[in-house]
Amino acid sequence: MLDQWHIPLNKVHVILRDNASNMKKAMDNMGVRSLGCFAHTLQLVVNEGLLPQRSVSDAIAIGRQIVGHFKHSPLAYSRLQDIQLQMQMQPKRLQQDVKTRWNSTYLMIQSLLEQKRVLGAYIADNDLPSTLTANQWALLEKTSIVLAPFEELTRKVSSATASTADVIPAVTVLKRILAKEGDADTGIKTMKKTLLEAVNRRFDSVEDEPLYALATLLDPRYKD
Q1: Straight-line distance from the first to the last Cα atom of the chain, in angstroms, rounded to the nearest whole number
Q2: 1, exposed or middle or buried, with CB in 10 Å at 0-12, 13-18, 19+?
Q3: Angle at the Cα of 15 (from 158 to 103), degrees rounded to 5?
Q4: Which segments cross the bilayer (predicted)?
Q5: pLDDT tens digit string along 106-129?
Q6: Average pLDDT in the chain
């Protein structure tokens, strides 16, 4: 591609790539500086963090079954829509999570929480493949709060105005949020701990990368 566009290697400052090892090796073989996709790494951290806490992963699995029920049954969705209208709510579909779509688990949880009353009314007269207990609803609410910073940062670094200078401050903020303990952490402590460990491991050398460090130092927003 560089040859086709007549771009000499000495004109290439850095190439943003995905995190696949073959892509990293290709850039190294070309002799050009490269950085892995920060947003993709964030999502890898989230995927790791949701697995170890069995109670959380079970609640998410049930939520996934509920969403799938309405996705695959037009009749069920029609009944759900009728209840939404009866409650004077804007008809809205539940969102299915997809591994390859960033923040999709967070968005699925949000859609379930938004439709909690509607789903409660639906269950009164209709069957679901599975239902969430009061404790599982509470876990989903707490999980949503923990994942919210990841969603916000992913949107921020995916915008047209995103800069390499945002990476180190973003990682620092995430570490502080995840390290902060509170009474509301009951039931999700393992998840938060795993998320923090994943952030520390995947971004352990971020401050040692000159491209990140120089960009942050030269950005007036982070002058102090």
Answers
A1: 40
A2: exposed
A3: 25
A4: none
A5: 999 999 999 999 999 999 999 999
A6: 91
